[in-house]
Specification:
The chain is globular. It has one domain: Gcn5-related N-acetyltransferase (GNAT) (Aminopeptidase, 3-Layer(aba) Sandwich). It has a five-stranded antiparallel beta sheet with strand order 1-2-3-4-5, with helices on one face. The protein is α+β, with helices and mostly antiparallel strands. Strand 3 and strand 4 form a beta hairpin. It is built from four helices and five strands. It comes from Paenibacillus herberti. It holds the Pfam family Acetyltransf_3. InterPro entries: Acyl_CoA_acyltransferase, GNAT_dom, N-acetyltransferase. GO terms for molecular function: acyltransferase activity, transferring groups other than amino-acyl groups.
Length: 111
């Protein structure tokens, strides 16, 4: 089982079904979708649980590792970060998105 990574300001933890509402709300912003290759706009209502389940299954297989980005204090959901593994080429790709209300916030400027 993959454990959470905790710093003073941020926590990265495996995605949970309870994140679905926040994912749909934040990823549904056109500006967020425009910064990624894989987030559709409009974000399909009700599709976040299947996204989370797919990410959990990929993590169990070791194909990718997706984490909720949350504030350590209070646990507010901010976005998603993922490491997508390409076993054939022995490489991985890091991708992330952060909800627009949290862009250019001090929390991220200090990382």
């Amino acid at each position: 089982m993959v454990k959470a990574m905790v710093t003073e300001r941020l926590t990265l933890r495996p995605l949970e079904l309870q994140d679905a509402e926040a994912i749909e709300s934040l990823a549904g912003n056109r500006d967020v979708a425009d910064t990624t290759l894989s987030i559709p706009h409009p974000y399909p209502t009700g599709s976040a649980p299947s996204f989370i389940q797919a990410r959990q299954e990929a993590m169990a297989r070791g194909d990718s590792y997706s984490f909720a980005v949350t504030l350590t204090e209070g646990g507010k959901f901010l976005g998603v970060v993922g490491l997508h593994v390409n076993k054939r080429h022995n490489m991985a790709e890091l991708a992330y998105w952060i909800g627009k209300p949290y862009w250019l916030r001090e929390t991220f400027m200090k990382i």
